[in-house]
Structure formats: C-alpha cells, structure tokens
Amino acid sequence: MIVAGDQQLLKQINRMALVRQLCSQPGMSRAALAETVGLTKSTISLLVRELLDEGWLIEEEPGITGALGRRATPLQLDGSRLALLGADLGISGARVVATNLLGEVLAERELPYADPQDSTACLALTAGGLVQLADDAALAEHSVLGIGIGVHGVVDDASGMLHIAPHLGWRNVDVAAQLRDSFVGSALDGLPLFIQNEANVAALAELEFSGQSGTDPLIYLSIGYGVGAGIIVNGRLLTGLSGFAGEVGHTILQQNGPACSCGRRGCADALIGLQAMMDDAYGTHHTSTPEQLERLFMQAEAGDTAATQAVTAAGRNLGVLLNNLWAAFDPMAIVIGGGALRLGERFVAPGRQVLDDYANAARLPAPAIRTPHFGPNSIAIGGAAMARHYLMRPALTTLPA
Amino acid sequence: MIVAGDQQLLKQINRMALVRQLCSQPGMSRAALAETVGLTKSTISLLVRELLDEGWLIEEEPGITGALGRRATPLQLDGSRLALLGADLGISGARVVATNLLGEVLAERELPYADPQDSTACLALTAGGLVQLADDAALAEHSVLGIGIGVHGVVDDASGMLHIAPHLGWRNVDVAAQLRDSFVGSALDGLPLFIQNEANVAALAELEFSGQSGTDPLIYLSIGYGVGAGIIVNGRLLTGLSGFAGEVGHTILQQNGPACSCGRRGCADALIGLQAMMDDAYGTHHTSTPEQLERLFMQAEAGDTAATQAVTAAGRNLGVLLNNLWAAFDPMAIVIGGGALRLGERFVAPGRQVLDDYANAARLPAPAIRTPHFGPNSIAIGGAAMARHYLMRPALTTLPA
Predict the structure, then answer these.
(1) Angle, helix B274-282 to helix B305-329, in steps of 10 degrees
(2) Are strands A161-165 and A170-174 parallel, antiparallel or unpaired?
(3) Which residues, in sequence order, are CB contacts of B283 under 8 Å at separation 6+?
(4) Is A25 left (phi over 0), alpha (psi -120 to 50) or beta?
C-alpha cells in the first residue's frame, strides 16, 4: 500500500518522532521506543542507526539490571556533534548563542548596538556575531543545523519580514533577507533560518529545552516595555490568521482605562508593561529612556512611594490578565518572563494574589505560574529551540492536523 | 523501511486524508487527489476503491471538458449510505438529528423534558429518541457510523462525565455510561459515542459541515444564559489541561463589576449573557424563569427602556470580549451563536460597533464576525459533526503533533 514516493516523508516523520520521544524520555532502548511509538523493532533499528551516524543520537553504556541476557542499550540525544544558533535582536543590543541539541549553551556573545535605530547596522552586527560563533573554537567539532532569531516586534514568520518593532523604531525590515545576504560565503550560508516574535521564541525555549515538553497548553507571558505572549497548543505555536495570535497585551482589562500605544484604551499593555509603570509613576509627559527605566527599578527597590504604587498596580492588573489567560486556554503552566521580572516579587506577588483570589472565589485550583528556565538568555536560547522545533517537525502535507 | 505493523495505521491515516480533502474540495479526481495529498496514483486508486465500497465516497458523471482522451471522474462524499447521529441535551428539552456524511439532516425530533431536573429521565428520553431516529424510515438505507452529544455544561470529554450543568441543576452525571446502557440491544449498541460541551460541539459543526473547513482559528462564541466558546486551532478543538479551555465567559472585562455565578466579579458571563441582561433589566432578586426570559425578548422587541438598555449594555460588553478574543487568537472568524441571537441586531450591532471602534483606533481590519450556519440546530448537528471529526482523525500515536 505504501509506495516509494511516500516513503521519504514517512521515514523523515518517523525519524523525528523517535528524536522527540528521546527528548522527553532520554535513555529509552530500541525495544522501548518500538513499544512506545508503535513501529517494529527492525524499523526502529534502521532509523536509530541513521540517527547515530548523523550525530542526532548517542548510545550510553547499558546499566546493570541483574537480568539475564543481553542488556538493552539506552539511547539519548547527542550533545557533542550538532549545534543550533539563536539570536535575541534586543532593544539596546543583540545576544547570540550556540547550543547543542539539548539546549546547553556552547558559546555566547553580547553585541551592543552603536545606534539602535539603524536596523541595517544592527542586523549586520548580529549576522557577524553568529558567523563568529560558528567559527568559535568551542564549536569546531559541531555542525550547525539551523538558526533561529527572536525579534521584539510584529513579524511575519512565513516571510521573515518585520512589520514593526515599536521600541526600536523599526518598520518593514526584511530581517531574513538581510541576514541571508550577510551569511553568503560563511559557514552559515544557506542554512535553515527561522524568525519569530520574541515571546513566541521564548515559549519554544520552554517547550523544547526545559525538560517539560509535556507542558501543554503553555503560555509564555513576556512583560517588557509592553506585554505579549507566546502560546503553545498541541505541541505547536499558535500563530493565527496573520501571525498576530498571542498579542494579549491588547486585550482590554479596564474599559475606558489609560490610553494604549495601539490606539485603544485600557489594554493590558497600558496597565501592566514597564512603560505603563513609568507613565504611572512619572507622568506620560516624560520621555521613556533607559535612564528613566533604571530610575524605576532603583526607586521600586528603595521603596519610593510613587514607584512602589505603580509597580503594585501593574502587578494587580497582571493578576487579571493571568485569570483571563487561564479561563481561555486552561494552560498547564503560565511562564512569566521579560524585563519586568527584574522587579521580582514586588511585581509578581500582587498578580499571584489577585489570581489566587479569583481561584478561591471560583473554588478552583489556580493554574501553575513560574519563571523562565533560561533567565535573560530565554530569547537567544529560544532562537536555537525554534530551529530544533521546526527541524524536528517536517511539513506534513499528506497528514492530518 | 515501512513494515507490515505500521501499514494499518498509515493506511487509515491516508484514507481519511483523502476524505478530508474531498470534504473541502468536492469533485476532485483521483489524479488531482494524488497531486494534492502527495500519494502515488496507484495508492490513491486502491484507497478510493475501498472508500467507494464502504459508502464514504461516490463517483459523479465526468463533465464534458472538451479535451481529448478519457475524462477524469469527479469524486465526492456519498450522502446516501452512511449516517451520523447528534443530540443537543438542552435546557428545556433535547433535540436529536440524523445527518448524512455531508451534514445534511435526514431526520430530526424535538423531545421536551417532563422534568428538566431529572437527569436520568432526560437521558433515557434522549437515548430513546436517538434509537427511534436510527430505526426511522428515512434512515433505513443508511448505516450509522457514530453518535455525538452536546451538553450545556462542563464535561470531561475523555470519560463522558458531566461535572456541572448550572442551568439544568445537574452535577456529576455519567452521561456516556447512561446513554450506553440505554443503547444495549438497539441498533446503536457499541457504536462510537462522543460527548462535549455545547459550544465546542457547535464549533465542530462550523468546522466540519459549513463548507469552510479552512477557517482556522475559528471561535464559536455561544451566548445563552451564560457565555462560553468552542475554539478550533490547527483543525483541532482546543480543550486545555482539564477540558475547560474556551471558558471565556469567566475572563474579566470589568474589574469590580457585577457578581458572577462563578464567584468572581466582572466576568463576561455576568456582563453579556441573558441572565446578566435579566438581572440588569429586572434586578437580581427576581428568579429567572423561561417566562422572565420571554418577557425580556418581548420587551426588547417592543422597545421597552429597561430591556433595551440592558440588551445594549450587554452588546457593548460583547464588543470588548470580541476584541479580546481577536487579540489572543487572531481568528479567521468568530461565529456568534446561542439563545441571545434571538435579540438580533439590538444585541449584536452594539458589539460590532465597539469592536469596529477598537479596530479603527488600532488601524487594523476587524476580524470577520458571523452567525452560525445551522441556526437553532447548531448543537444537534454539531453532535453529528463531532462524530465525523473524530472518526476522520484516527489516533496518531506514531506521528508528530
């Protein structure tokens, strides 16, 4: 029934099903894999042989089981031969990392922008940093499989075009094309390249590399100057009709509330983000600068009244947003990340309190809330995670959703 | 590479991929199917032969194309041999339908409850109605493939247990077990049975039978006494960790707003649902009865001030909820259904206006909003759609999400 033309795709799907299984349960034997994924032992043996040869998998020493007969050989992802690159195209600089297949950082660099408004120069700097990473001594033994980029703005992931990055002042920048041009002649020339919004990329880091791949639905709520989310449903990123899904910063939490940069009033973005806190503490007539932000962090730390009130109010509104995400998605976990995390419990505790109050009122257990596994590296490592994510999920045109 | 043990599953997946393709593009030839789904022509021919024999597909007369040579035979789903059953376990009665594979109604019955509080009697009545439908003359030529039930409450779809149906007063009712028991010895004994929340089922009717299967994400917003949603993402129902995803009636639209039945304040449910409108128009001290609801519909129709204000206020809050669903999901369409639709434009127009105002403020095109394809039959037909949905998506244990 299955003929030659179909076999290539099916083989690729089955190969990557084995790799994904070993991501969530490292140390499985060929026999255990056959049982779990429902393929025959001979098929498994052939696929595992290929994956060992190509650097995806490695055999461990069999443990001593006390049982008679040949011991099963545990398999796991090989961290020593293949690499993934990721970049965080940040607000004041880029951060680039190389990881192995397990998400362990092999090398990283910080690259401050000379002029954040100059998108061409920022992208050239980032591309150069990625090429240098690939040439790094730490990576000499590794082959790079792919590259993923997280961008703090609205991006069309299909084309790699950045529509708008409000806090960088970039509009309609063809990030993919500029990076590809910069890679010509380097070791990265022609490699698979993936581009996504920063919250989406950070969500993929949690999905792929946190050791908790069964957390689904998973929401990564990114709170920096503004508010956005990366949402994983059924093991895939929720992107929506035009790639804008997860823009939960523009859900309305307070009708006729403060004006939002989007033109609406009372959006989560205008009530919870760092910009909202600065507007609240210092008035909207002040320009927002890195110095102003530093002032907010220092004054909140020092217990200044205006700063503390602004942070607490934002935290309480965070609790409303957490409730709303809980009701809509019934997530297995909500991860709170982004620059606002530097405010720590001053910001998060009021949010958790409001959420708990709602949960108690409804006599339901509140959803799990946690911080990111990868701290300030979440987005750069998320780039590497995105590359692994898409490489391990080949296009399934003949198969059901 | 592909061995005997794998073939059975792969064959089932490929068979149903063909059926799904013909659902969205009826009239394709074997050659066009081979091209589109990426299988060889010989594989397609074998699978199509089986599906013709079993009653899933039928061949049409080839059209006159003017081209030389043998004309391609158009294929489509066969509406004449297989049937699906659906039930809407409503508030005052049940509605049962039989449809063919295309979702066309073959027979239907309304079954008023003697005592809505008596869950055992209501379920026995519904089961009896389904058995009678299957024996109906109109169905004599059809084989029933499966049965789907929509319940106005919170249901665990994996077990078929209803946790709570607030407007029926039912708690912890094992709907699946009671129906299965009633089917023993009838034509429905042992057939696949699926149970879901009513908004989820209505969403599946839109996905499967509306002729718009590419509408994704799709949100079916159900507004009756309360508010809930069925959400389709990547061709699948979003169910969440515990099956509660889509409970958007308990997202908060107005902090410290009116008390909600869930214990929170300011939920969409307490601002938009028919119960909220009655509380607003007549005060919360009045009991809500079918007569009270009829009074609301009549007075809104007649232009009574209190009723009109309540309906308009609910409609404006509907607009806020529509905005929030738009931002979170970037849906291809939001379908507004449920009993509140009887209020017509008095209710929906203010909602659309608020949504349009937000869209204009943000300089974005508003998402598509429409009414259900199946009117008051949405949930019963949705039951049949759910049966087709799950039968056409065999478990994919060896395949990626």
Answers:
(1) 150
(2) antiparallel
(3) none
(4) beta
In chain B, what residues touch A398 (CB-CB under 8 Å)? 14, 17, 37-39
The answer to whether residues B353 and B117 touch, using CB atoms and an 8 Å cutoff, is no
Rounded distance between C-alpha atoms, residue B211 and residue B150, angstroms: 21
The CA-atom distances, in angstroms, between A294 and each of A289, A291, A299 are 9, 5, 9
Kindly list the residues from chain A whose CB atom is less than 8 angstroms away from the CB atom of residue B242: 330
**Domain spanning B82-202+379-391: which CATH class is it, in words?**
alpha beta
What φ, ψ does residue B160 adopt, rounded to 5°? 80, 20
Parts of chain A belonging to CATH 1.10.10.10: 4-60
A401–B263 C-beta distance less than 8 A:
no
Query: What is the structure's pLDDT at B287?
Result: 65
Query: Mean pLDDT, to the nearest integer, of B247-268?
Result: 94
Asked if the Cβ–Cβ distance from A399 to B16 is below 8 Å, we say no
d(CA A28, CA A33): 6
- At B399 the pLDDT is 32
Is pLDDT of A15 > 80? yes
For chain B, say whether A215 makes contact (Cβ under 8 Å). no
What SS3 string covers A336-381? EECHHHHHCHHHHHHHHHHHHHHHHHCCCCCCCEECCCCHHHHHHH
Does A396 score more than 60 pLDDT?
no
Q: Where, residue-wise, is CATH 3.30.420.40 in chain B? A: 82-202+379-391, 213-372
Residue where the block lists tokens 């090429």: A131
Residue A264, pLDDT score: 94
- Give me the mean pLDDT over the B354-367 stretch: 94
CA dist B71 to A104, B21, B345, Å? Answer: 59, 21, 50
What are the pLDDT digits (tens) for B119-149?
Answer: 999 999 999 999 999 988 677 889 999 999 9
Give, in degrees to the nearest 5, the angle at Cα B41 between B37 and B47.
75
* pLDDT above 50: residue B150: yes
DSSP A267: B
Question: pLDDT tens-digit profile of A51-91?
Answer: 999 999 999 988 665 566 667 899 999 999 999 999 999 98
CATH number given to A4-60 = 1.10.10.10
Q: A252, A316, A321, A390: which to substitute to probe chain B, counting the most B Cβ within 10 Å?
A: A252
pLDDT at A395 over 80: no
The CATH superfamily assigned to B213-372 is ATPase, nucleotide binding domain (3.30.420.40)
Q: Answer whether B59's CB lies under 8 Å from A19's CB.
A: no
- Could you give the 3-state DSSP secondary structure of residue B260? coil
Task: Say how far apart CA B320 and CA B331 lie, in whole Å.
Answer: 15
B245/A330 touch (CB, cutoff 8 Å), yes or no: yes
CB within 8 Å of chain A, chain B residues 30-89 = 37-40, 42-43, 46-47
